[in-house]
Specification:
The protein is an alpha+beta fold. The protein is built from 15 helices and 28 strands. It has a 7-stranded mixed β-sheet with strand order 8-7-11-12-24-23-20, sandwiched between helices. The radius of gyration is 31 Å and the shape is globular. The protein starts with a helix and ends with a helix.
Length: 580
Amino acid sequence: MATKRTNRGKDLLDLLVGLGIVALVLFISSFVRVRADLTSEQRYTLTPATKELVGKLDDVVFVKVYLHGELPADLKRLEQATRELLDEMRVLNPDLLQYEFVDPSASPDEKTRVEVYRALTAQGLQYSSIRVKEKGGQRELIVFPGAVLSYKGKTQVLQLLKTQLRQPDADMVNRSINNLEYEVSSAIRQVVSTLKPRIAFLEGHGELAAPLVQDIANVLGEQYTVSRVRIDDRIDALSDKVEGGRYRANKYEALVVAKPDSAFSDRDLYVIDQFLLNGGKVLWCVDAMNAHLDSLRQNQFSIATPYDLRLSDLLFAYGVRINTDIVLDKQCAPIELYTTPYGNQRKLERFPFPYEPIVIPRSAHPIVNNIDPVHLRFPSSIDTVGTDSARTTVLLTSSPYTWVLKNPARISLGIVDNPPPFDRSTTPDLPLAVLCEGVFRSAFTDKLPKQFTDDPQVGFREWSRRTAMVVVSDGDAIANRVDPQKGMYYPLGYDRYAGTKVYGNRELFVNALNYLLDDQGLISIRSRAITLRTLDTAKVEDERSRWQAINLVVPVLLSVALGAGLHLARRRRYAHVNAA
C-alpha cells in the first residue's frame, strides 16, 4: 500500500515538474522570437531592400486593407498572403508599421454600403464585380482588392489586384501574390518619399503623343516626376550651367525617346549626347523601318523603307546599331482578317501574324526576369559594337524560328497564307532589346570647333560619368492602345482579343527605368518568383470519396491504437511493480 502511495506521489511530482518546465519554456519564448522559412522559394523571407525600407521608417505607416470579408477562394488566398506579408514587415518595425483589415461590405444596410463604395472609389481604389454561385442561382459581390496607406497626413492608394478587366482567376491572383512584396514596398516608398527622380518624355521629332504613352506615364508617375520636354536646338533644354562648375547639370535623371519619325537636328543630337555623358539615363524605343499596320489593312501590302532619324552615328558611338530590317517570328501574336465570303457573309478569322513577335524573356537580368512575354510590332534586329569602357547586355531576343526581311521590305497580309520557311531560318535569336552601361565617349568628339568645346558656358564633356541606356528596336512596344470614340486608353500590354492585359510590356519599361535610375531594391523585389501550387480539379473530383474516408478513419484508428498501446504499457508497468 505504501509502495502505491509512493508511486502516485512520484507521478504527481513528475507531472508538476513537467508543467513547470512547459510554463517556463512558454514564458521564455514570449521574449524570444524564432522564425524559420522552410518554403523552397523563401516565400516568407523579405528581401534586403524591403528590410532596409521598413527599418528606416521615422513615423507610423498605417495600412488599411479593404480585401476582407466574404470572398471567393482565390481572393481569400490573396488576402491571406497580404496579411502574412504585413506580419513579416511588422516584425522589423512593429511600432511604426501598423495595419487593419476592413470589410467594405460589412454593413447590412445597402445605402451605407453604397456610400462606402463611393468613398473608396473617390480615393482611387478600383473594385471588382464578381458573380458568386449559390444554391438558388447567382448573386453579385463587390470587392475592393486594394489598400490605402497613410503617413504624416499623406495617403497612397495600393491596388493589390492590378487587373480589373475580368473576374479574377488563379493565374491572375498568382501574379498578384508574386508581385505583392514589390507593390507594398513600392507604395511605402511613394508615401514616405520626399524627392522623386525626374523623367522626361521627348517631343519634337514625331514621338508618340501623350495619350499613346499615358499608361506607362501614369505608372511611372507613382514613383517618379514625369513630364514632357522639347529641345528645339536649345542647349539648356535638358541641362543647366552651374556657376563654378566645369560641366553642365542635368534637369532630369532620365529621358524617354518613344518612336520618333523625323530627323534630329545636329544641335538636338548634341544636347542628348551631353545629357547622357553628364550621367543622364536614356530609354530608346526606336523604329528603324516605317512599317505600319494601317497601310496594310488599306492596301493589303506596302513597302517599308528606313526612317531618316539621323540617330545611327549617335547610337553607334555608344555600342549599338539598329539594323534597317524587319524581324519576323513564328512565335507571334494573332491578327483578325476577313476571309473569302461564304454566300453573302464575310467571315472574320484569326491567323498568326509573324510581323508581331511575342518575345519570351530568356535572360536572367533583373530588367526582364520574371516578366510576361513582350509584344512587339515590326521590330528590327540590333547589333552590338564592342567598346572598352562599356558593356552591352542583351535583354530580349527573337525565338529560334526567325526570318529577316532586308531593306526595302515588302510587307503583305498574304503572309498569313504563305508564311516564311521558319524551319530553315539561319538567323535565330536576334537581339531586339539591349542594355548598355559603363563609360561612353561623346559622339561629337573631334567633330566640333575647338572654340565651341573650350567655351566654359558650353561645358563640353568628352567622356561620360558612369551611366546607362536601354535600346528597344520597336517604338510601338511602349505605346498603349487608345479608343478615341470612348475617350479612354487601355493598359500597356492589353490584348484586345483576350480582353485583358496579357503582355509584359509595362513591366519591361518600369523595370528598365527602375534599373537605370538605380532603384535596385525595387528590381530585386520584383525579380522574386512564388509558385502557386494549385490542385488538380479532375483528380480531386475522382478521389474525393477515398480521401474523405482516409481523413475520417485514419485519425480514429491512430487514436485507438495509441490509446491501446498506452493502456497495455501502463498495465505491464504496474504489474511489474505489484509483483515486486
